Amino acid sequence: MIDQLQIKGEWRDGVPILEIDYLPAQMFQPRTSQLLSEKLISEYRSLLAESNRDVPPRACVLVIKATTAGSPLVRAIFAVYEVIHADSGTLFCVNYPVDYLESLTSLGLTALPGFKLMNTLDETLEEARKLVGTNA
What we know:
Elements: E1 6-12, E2 15-21, H1 32-51, E3 59-64, H2 71-86, E4 90-94, H3 101-106, E5 115-118, H4 121-132
Parallel strand pairs: 2-3, 3-4, 4-5
Antiparallel strand pairs: 1-2
């Protein structure tokens, strides 16, 4: 089931983008939270390494492709948020499954400084580019 987890990273308009997809059953597998966290952070750090920047970007976009969510995903989002926020960055989360939004908000993630929940990638890139432009 671990091979069903897909995390990709790319740069678009000076903004690092992480994309995650998985099968719904992945949320019920042991160590899913740890695995998601490790892979997201690793991909983010790989993007930074390939960028040859002296300072990290002030924004990162996380696109959720999956249609379900659970506490493992929430924990993984928080883990990557901590890495990005430690560098004074903002994590934009796009396409979080609406039916599972309560789990994200009840744990307070959406109220944290440097975390923004967004609807579309286009609007998110527009906002993220404003932040990235401040240190590009």
